[in-house]
Fold these 4 entries.
Entry 1:
Amino acid sequence: MDENRIPLHIGLIMDGNGRWAKKRLMPRSYGHNAGMNAMIKIAEHAQNLGVKYLTVYTLSTENLLRPEEELEGLYALFRKYFKKNLQKLYNSGAGVKVIGDVSVLPEDVQVLLRDGENNSPKDAAFTLIFAINYGARSEILRACNLAVERGEKLDGSGLDAYLYTHGVPDPDLIIRTGGEKRLSNFLLYQAAYSELYFTDVLFPDFDEAELDKAIAEYSKRERRFGKI
C-alpha cells in the first residue's frame, strides 16, 4: 500500500449481510448484527490509516420497503450500537454526520442520530457518515426543489450547497461488497470521478485486510478526471 495515496474519502456499500446469515441457516437479523460489528472495525481501521471521511450506506430509501420486522431489527441495532460506540468515537477524535431523510424513522432513533451529530467534535480529524434512508435521486431532487423555492438558478457549486454532503469532499473510492457491481442509488452525483472497487466478499467477512486490499488497488490507479 502506498501510504501517500490513501483516499481522503471512502464510500462503502455494505452488501451481503442477509446472504451471509442464510449460508449459516440464521435469520437476516443475525447477518445485520454481524455487519454492524464489521462496520465498526472497518471505521476504526480506516481512521488509523489516515482516511478522513468514511460514508457507510446504512439504509437506502428502497430498503424502507422491506418487511417491518426486518426494519425493526435494524432500528434495534441503531439503538444498541450507536450510543454505545459514540463516546469511544469522540474520544478517538472522530465525529459523526448523518445524510438522508431521517424524519420517517422512529422518534427515538432520530434523537440518537441528531445527538450523535450535535455532540461531535467540531474539529474532528475523521468523520463517519451514516447514509440512512438515503437515495441519490431523492437527494438531487430535494436540492433542486430547495433552490426553486428560493428562486435560485443552480450551477455546480450552487447544487453542492443543497446536497446532504455539503462541506464533504467527493469520495475518492467507493467499495461495494457482496459481488454485485452497481452503485444502487448511492452518491451518484458525488461519484462522478470516484474509483470503484467491487469484491465478492460478503460484508460481515470484509475485515481490515480486505480494506487494505481495496486501498492498495486504488493506490495503483491513475486518476486523470477526464484530462490527458
Entry 2:
Amino acid sequence: MKIISNIFVLMLVLAGAVNAQGYKVGDYAEDFRLKNVSGNMVSMADYPDAKGFVVIFTCNHCPYSIAYEDRIIALNKEFASKGYPVIAINPNDPSVSPEDSYDKMIVRANEKGFTFPYLFDEGQKIYPKYGATRTPHVFILKRENTKYQVVYIGAIDDNSQDEKKVEKKFAFDVLNALSLQQEITTSETKAVGCSIKAKK
C-alpha cells in the first residue's frame, strides 16, 4: 500500500513539473482576464475578429524590456490591423520588484504611449501557465476556431541591445508569415531578458 502511495505522490510531482514548464509550440493557450492600465479587465475573448495574438510578458524596469518597447509598439502598429494585436503582460510581483507596481505601469504606458493593452498579472497566475521566464518573452498565438494555438515562443529578434544591428526579426517574420498564410520557418528561439520576479 505504501508503494502505491509513493507512486501516486511521484505522479503528482511529475505532473506538476510538466505543468511548470508551460506551453510548448502546438499547445492551446487558455484565455485570461487581467486588469489593464486603464482599469478595465481585458481578455482575448474581447477581440472576436482577431486571427491571433502577440502575447508579450514585459515590465517597467528591465533594461531589456525598455530597449524593446519601441519595437513592441511597431509590431502592434504593423500587425494589429492584420488581425494579430499585441497584448503585453507584466508578470513581476511588485513586492519583489517595486518598480513594476500597477501604478508605475500606468505611468510607463502613458510615457511611451502604448497602443496596446498593458495588463497586470496580479497573483502571478498567468505567466507560469505560459512558461514565461524572461522579460520580454514572446508567445504568438493563432486562432483555431475558438482556441488559440501557440505557434511561436521566444525572442522578438536577435539583438536586444541595438535595433540597428538586428539581422533576424523572429516575431515579425512569424507574424508576416501568418498574415500571408505562409509556412512559419522558425517557431522557437531563446528569450533574452531579465528573470521574472516572483516571491520565494
Entry 3:
Amino acid sequence: MKILTSLAFLILALVFTGCTTAEYQKMQHERTRLREIYEDARRKHFNAPTEIKHAVIDSVLGTWRLRSIEMKEGDVSEEILAATVALDASSRKNLTLRFYRDNTVPRYEGINGSIVISGPLTVGLRRIAEELYPLLILLRGQGLSPAEFLLEHSAAELYPRIVNLPLSISVDGDRLLLTLDGGMTLTPDGWAQRGGIRCAFQRMKEE
C-alpha cells in the first residue's frame, strides 16, 4: 500500500511538473513574442523619420523647371499678395532647380537667366496628429537666398527675414509641388490662416 501511495504521489508530481514546465515554456514564448513586437515597433519608430527623409531626397533628384506660382487658398483675402505672386511667376518662366548629391551631401542649384544660387538642403518633418509630413528645407548658400530666388516680392510679404526656406513638398511622378506656408496673421476678427504660395515644377528629361 505504501508503495502504491508513493507511486501515486510520484505520478502526480511528474504530471504537475510537466504542466508547470509547459506553462513556463508558454510564458517564455509569449514574453519572447511580445519583446520581438516591441523591438520591431521601436525600430520602425526610430527609423521612420530617417527613411522618410531619404525617400524625399531620392524623389526630387534631377532637374525641374518652374511651371507656375500661385496663391494657395487661405482664410484671408490677399489681392495685393496675389498680384505680387503673379509678378513673380512672370519673371521666372525659365527658372530651374536641380537637386543632386555631392558625395553623400544633398544639394540644390537654382538658375534663372544669369542668376545662379546653390547650397545644401535638408528634410524636416512636421508631425500632425500621428502623421509625419516632410518639409524640404533649402539652406542659404551662394547667391541670393532661396526665398528671394523663388519668390522675390511675395516672399517679402510672407516672411520679411526668411533665410532658410522651408517648403511643404509633394511629388507625383514628373510633377513637383513646393508650398511656402503663409502662417497666421492677425485680423480684426482674430487670427486667420494666410494662404501661402505654391510653386509647381515639371521634371526635365536628362540629356
Entry 4:
Amino acid sequence: MIGIIDYDAGNIKSVEKALAYLGEETVVSRDPQVLLRADKVILPGVGSFGEAMENLHKYGLVPVIQDMIKKGTPFLGICLGLQLLFESSEETPGVEGLGILKGKILRIPPSPGLKIPHMGWNSLHLQNNGRLFKDIPEDTHVYFVHSYYLQAEDPQIVKAVTEYSTTIHASVEKDNVFACQFHPEKSSKYGLKILENFAKLEKEGN
C-alpha cells in the first residue's frame, strides 16, 4: 500500500491515477495512523512553499512525516514535495521547510529566451547511481513545471540534473528519502518506470 499525503496541494489525482495504472494499491489520506501503516509514502504537490508548510502544520503532518522517514519507510517527494524536504525557499523567506535534507530552494534566474515558470520537457543527466533511475536511459526527457529549483548541499545525494538557465538538481536520494523536481506521473513511459522503481523499493533495513 502506497500512502499519498493529502494536504490540499494540487496534483494528487494524477499521481494516484499513474500508480493505479501500474497496478499499485494507494490510499490518499491525511490521517496519521493510515499514513504510518503505509509501506511507502508520496508527498506530491503544486503550489506555494509557504502555504504548503502551513497546511502540513495545520493537519499535524510534520511529525508524521519525520516519524515515517525515521522508521525507514521509502518516501518520495514530487515537485513542491521535493522542495518541502529542504530547509527553506526563496519563494517564502522566513518559512522553515521540513529540513530533512540540506540545501537551498532558489528562484530560477532570468535568461534571454527562457520563460519562467519553466514548463515543459527537459532531458536528465544521470549521476551517482540513483535507485529511481534503474533502467532509465541517459538524456531521458521528463516534464517540469516550476519557478524555483533545488541546489542541494551534498552533491552525492544528487542523482539527476537538468539545465534550464542554470544547473537544476532534478532528483535526489538519501537513504530512504527520494525526491524529483519533475513530474514522473506526467512524464510518459519513463516517468511511469521511475514510479515503478519507487514502488518496488524495500524498506530500509530489510
